[in-house]
Amino acid sequence: MISEFIEKLFEKDIQDALDSADTNNDDVVDWDEWRSDLKLRGVPDAEIEAVFAKYDKDGDMVLNKEERNKLRADLLKQTAEITDEIDDVKEHGSKVT
Asked: What DSSP string describes 14-77?
């Protein structure tokens, strides 16, 4: 459960970075903008690099609108899944396997 909580915190940081990291307002988030924003939020380098690499499909070191939309959609899906799991635990109690 703790790992899910931490994962949810990272998702929130990443979502917030998508909204604020484009500091020069060129409608793309480049690597330096991405890293700077998430470092200020305390996100570890490995997490920053992994997420950026996963969504920078063309390898140009920027997240264009399409890449950011894919990331945003995946974050929403993950957040919904974690929320459902938390609700399930609240409703049915902890599941020990």
From this structure: HHHHHHH--TT-SSSEEHHHHHHHHHHTT--HHHHHHHHHHH-TT-SSEE-HHHHHHHHHHHHH
d(CA 34, CA 23): 10
Q: CA angle 7-35-43, nearest 5°? A: 30
Model pLDDT for residues 50-87, shown as the tens digit of each residue: 999 999 999 999 999 999 999 989 888 887 777 777 78
**pTM (predicted TM-score):** 0.74
Q: Dump pLDDT digits (tens) for 19-45.
A: 899 899 998 999 999 999 999 988 889
* CA-based end-to-end distance of the chain: 14
